[in-house]
């Protein structure tokens, strides 16, 4: 396996954050702010008059609001399908061709134990035969053996590991996050600022970009 770079330890982790994690969060923030902002712009309204809720009132505004809500929901479903597809095709199209060659657990699953040791050694800036790396490799191998014996149905069964409880907690947390209206506020905050708080278009967009 070719080395990712000359960095090790903290420098390598910082490089990982700056080149992989940070751009992902920037794209996510841009998506949320941009989706919220463009729907009140006149160029958007001119192109999609069926979603004009700025210049309409009464029943027409209500009808356009329903159309806008449907389009937003479909957009989010498309994002969900794209994200889930990464589970199946991410390793084939991206991870195997990147400098990181995936997580150590993925390398161990593929039988590339030496590569996994090298990755851990670089991330921790330790010798490949250090006790902590040996322990991590053994722990990952044990975890893979245990998970390989299960099935998807085990998520809904409360065995010794109490998978059903964990799944319920994870789902409940996500539902709570959505029920509180976080996405609604993010997507429609520019409309709220302009329509209900009386802010002009430029200030509404600026406030929408800052708040996320």
TrEMBL record:
Localized where? Answer: Membrane
Q: Name one GO cellular component term.
A: membrane
Positions of transmembrane segments: 12-33, 73-93
Q: How does it sit in the membrane?
A: Multi-pass membrane protein
**GO molecular function terms here?**
carbohydrate:proton symporter activity
InterPro entries from the xrefs?
A: MFS_sugar_transport-like (IPR005828), MFS_Sugar_Transporters (IPR050360), MFS_trans_sf (IPR036259)
Q: Would you say which domain of life the source belongs to?
A: Eukaryota
Keyword terms: Membrane, Transmembrane, Transmembrane helix
> Which PANTHER family does the UniProt entry name for this protein?
MAJOR FACILITATOR SUPERFAMILY (MFS) PROFILE DOMAIN-CONTAINING PROTEIN-RELATED, PLASTIDIC GLUCOSE TRANSPORTER 4
Task: From the Swiss-Prot or TrEMBL record, give the protein name.
Answer: General substrate transporter
């Amino acid at each position: 396996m070719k080395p990712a770079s000359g960095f090790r330890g903290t420098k390598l982790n910082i490089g990982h954050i700056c080149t992989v994690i940070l751009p992902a969060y920037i794209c996510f923030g841009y998506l949320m702010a941009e989706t919220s902002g463009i729907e009140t712009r006149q160029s958007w309204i001119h192109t999609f008059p069926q979603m004009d809720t700025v210049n309409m009132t009464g029943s027409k505004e209500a009808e356009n609001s329903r159309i806008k809500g449907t389009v937003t929901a479909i957009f989010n479903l498309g994002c969900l399908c794209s994200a889930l597809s990464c589970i199946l095709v991410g390793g084939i199209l991206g991870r195997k061709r990147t400098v990181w060659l995936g997580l150590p657990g993925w390398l161990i699953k593929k039988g590339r134990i030496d590569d996994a040791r090298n990755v851990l050694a670089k991330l921790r800036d330790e010798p490949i035969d250090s006790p902590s790396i040996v322990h991590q490799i053994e722990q990952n191998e044990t975890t893979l053996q245990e998970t390989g014996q299960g099935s998807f149905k085990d998520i809904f069964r409360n065995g010794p590991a109490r998978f059903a409880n964990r799944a319920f907690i994870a789902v409940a947390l996500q539902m709570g996050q959505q029920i509180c209206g976080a996405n609604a506020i993010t997507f429609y905050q520019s409309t709220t600022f302009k329509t209900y708080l009386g802010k002009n278009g430029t200030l509404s967009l600026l406030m929408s970009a800052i708040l996320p």
